[in-house]
Structure formats: C-alpha cells, structure tokens
Amino acid sequence: MIRAVLFDMDGTVFDSEKIYRKAWLAVFRKLGIEGYYEGSMRVVTGRDHDEIGEYLKSPVGHDFDYEAIWRYKTDVIFEIIEKEGLHLKPGVPEVFDRLHEMGILCALASSTNSGRAEKFLTITGIKGYFDLILTGGCVAHSKPAPDVFLLAAEKLGVTPDECLVAEDSENGVLAGYAAGMRVVFIKDLMDLTDRACACVWKKADTLAELPELVKSLQNS
Fold first, then answer.
1. What confidence tens digit (pLDDT) does each residue in 62-85 have?
2. Residue 106 in 3-state DSSP?
3. How large is the angle between the packed helices 49-60 and 37-44, nearest 10 degrees?
4. Per-residue model confidence (pLDDT) at position 3
5. Does the predicted model carry a pTM greater than 0.85?
6. How far apart are CA 176 and CA 192, in angstroms?
7. Most CB atoms closer than 10 Å: which of 89, 93, 109, 120?
8. Nearest to 150, CA basis, from 138, 103, 117
9. pLDDT digit string, tens, across residues 96-135
C-alpha cells in the first residue's frame, strides 16, 4: 500500500538541470578547471552545498573562496531564469491533484538549499501542492544517503515501504533504494549506471504516469 510519493526537485519537478549545467560551466570556467566539467556533473547532481565544496577542493585546492563561488553560481542561475524562465516538468502540477484525489500525500525531498527552493516554488506557484517540503541542510547527509527520504516518511507518519520516490538522478535513485522505498526513474539529462539501474522499480517518461503506477501497487 502506497500512502506517499516523495519528489526530488531539480530535474524531476522543475526543468532546472539545464540551467544548473550552464551555471556550473560558468563556474568551472571561472575556476580554470573547465576540463573537469563533464566528469563532475554526475558527482555534484543531487549533492548539498557542503559536499560539493569538499569535492571541488580536489581540482581547485583547499584555500579557494567557495562561498564566493557559490554566490556567483547562484547569480548566474537567476540571470538565466530571468532571461529564459523557469519551467515545470511535464505532468506538473496536475500529478499532485491526481495523487491527492487518491488520498496520497506528496512531499518535496531535495538536496537544494532552502532559499533557492523557496524562490523556485514561489516563482512557479506550486508550493501549496506539497504536504511537506524538505530541502538541503535538514539532514546530516545528502543523497545518495537515504536521510532526507527517511525523514520525509517520519514526518508524514508513514513507513518507508509505504513511499514511492520520483527521481531523475543517480544519487537520488541510490538514496531512495537505500531508504527501502520503491523508486521511479524519470530521465532528465543523465542516464543511470548499471548500479543505479538495479535500484529502480519502474521507469516513466513523465510524472503524469505516477498515479497509474501507484494504482498498480494499491491493487496488487
């Protein structure tokens, strides 16, 4: 029995990973490590602020001003949004209405920092669709650790096996599986490694397929 669906944010609810990639490319150029860009995207996607900072110490060095770089990246993100807009992924927000009609709780469980998440939710007007919102910094360990999904289940009053996770990233899929939840993978920009593929319960083209997938579990 599924009682809750836990949604990743970037690349799952918002079509924002393309924006982030442009911003990361600008950051890597600014740091003079553009050659690390392609290999780094799988590593940083789904990670929180502090863990990304630790990762960048390897190619850049331990004494760079990470907070200044993070502010620069944030500025680039919102410059792009101002020019190009911030778009929702197919199936949003209708999927939330359909799930709520079925009595299913909807939670946002993201590693994105709370300030940016709040701005994205405000820009698109979808904050009210979520029964719970968890963002970066609310747990000790970000994805691929299962912490944020386990905390979401606890706060919603459901067990992990009563949760379905909707994810687009390698780290998110691994986190959902580690939490003991069924994971639906909706591809955005990246394919999964074989390791992560083995952790996926179902693949879907869009979030609009989630209600039927939930029904299939309710009736099994």
1. 778 888 988 999 999 999 999 999
2. strand
3. 150
4. 97
5. yes
6. 14
7. 109
8. 138
9. 999 999 999 999 999 888 999 999 999 999 999 999 999 9
Per-residue DSSP letter, 104: -
Residues in the chain: 220
Whether residue 164 contacts residue 5, with contact meaning beta carbons closer than 8 Å, is answered with: yes
How far apart CA 128 and CA 67 sit, in angstroms, is: 31
Spatial distance between the Cα atoms of 171 and 153, rounded to a whole number of angstroms:
18
Tokens of 19: 């924006």
SS3 34: helix
Task: Report the Cα–Cα distance between both ends of the chain, in Å, rounded.
Answer: 9
Q: What is the pLDDT of residue 82?
A: 95
* Strand locations in 97-217 (E): 105-113, 132-136, 163-167, 182-186, 202-204
